[in-house]
Predict the 3D structure of the following.
Amino acid sequence: MLKEYFNKMKGTTKSPPAVSLAEIGWSWVGAFLGIAAVASLNYKILENSDLVLIIGSFGASAVLIYGAIKSPFAQPRNLLGGHIFSAVIGVACYQLLGSHVWLAASVAVATAIAFMHATKTLHPPGGATALIAVIGSAKIHNLGYLYVLMPVGLGAVIMLLVALLVNNIPRSRRYPEFWF
């Protein structure tokens, strides 16, 4: 029984083939423009305010929506739903359990994953979005549920718009695969 358990860890398939230089280039362009759009608004317009527009989980979203555009995790429903649902859950967990950060963080991420599964919006960066709501700075905590709209909702929408524009320029790429 133990041998069977460890044999599962060997994997069942070979590594996927390498992508073309064109694919790498378009992924780079999309990621650059998507993060640049969100970051420039954050650092040029919002820097002297209590608002924020960029969070760490957007880096992971960029990998998916510009670099793995056919993945179910990269589709608009998953991008938007995964981030927004996870943000609501993260803020709620911080507000209810924030005096026990370890517990709030654990409940936030686990609940976000379960909720994304249940709503067919699984987006791995959503777990980080929930976690950031709990372990983020005072600036994040002071946003309360505004965190759901900004930075999370607005930032994800901006990145989605860039993905729609950039990913459909080359004939070899098409995004999205589905909306709902």
